[in-house]
Amino acid sequence: MKHKEAGNEHFKKGEFQEALREYYNALLFLRGLNNDVMATAVPKDPENLEEGDITELNKDLSVIQANMAACHVRLNRYTRAVQCAQDALKSNPFNKKAKFRLVQGYIREGSLLKAGKLLDELEKDSPNDAAFAAERRNIVTKEAEAEKKQRRELAGMFDRARNED
To answer: Which parts of this chain are annotated as the region Disordered (predicted)?
Structure first.
């Protein structure tokens, strides 16, 4: 956990690459602690999974992976941010920060429908969360930009068709 704390300090200073290095080291140590072979061999049914079923080790893994996703978002590595957030949710599907990091990655990647659905889930529990509202505005802005771009492209297509006649 020393590596996790060191990663947190680097993150606070805006040193995202250094934070990633520390988080990665923390992951290596924690994965080495996982000696429960049966837990990985026979996963529980996700439909019947409860928050109490998640081990402390998996909770720690999930937090670190979500922190790594946050670093990747800040470094504009959106595909990697999505991967880390998804890994965090595999370790602990109840990790709301990991879901939020996944939303951020999806938005910046351009997967607005996926981001919107996940954000809907998050907003059910915290409808007045300012961070959620900011990402909702990002979705609306990106959708408007995409629509505007599509209109320009279609308008140009019809202009070319008239000139050919």
So the answer is: 143-165
Domain count along the chain: 1
SS (H, E, C) the chain: CHHHHHHHHHHHCCCHHHHHHHHHHHHHHHHHHCCCHHHHHCCCCHHHCCHHHCCHHHHHHHHHHHHHHHHHHHCCCHHHHHHHHHHHHHHCCCCHHHHHHHHHHHHHHCCHHHHHHHHHHHHHHCCCCHHHHHHHHHHHHHHHHHHHHHHHHHHHHHHHHHHHC
State the Cα angle at 20 between 65 and 108, rounded to 5°.
Answer: 70
Instruction: Give the CATH number of the domain where residue 107 resides.
Output: 1.25.40.10
Statement: residue 27 has pLDDT above 80: yes
What range does the domain containing 80 cover?
A: 2-164
d(C-alpha 70, C-alpha 60), whole Å: 15
Of 59-63, 118-122, 154-158, give the lowest mean pLDDT range.
154-158
157: phi then psi, degrees, rounded to nearest 5? -65, -40
Q: At which residue do the structure tokens 């990747």 appear? A: 72
| C-beta of residue 136 within 8 angstroms of C-beta of residue 119 | yes
pLDDT at 42: 36
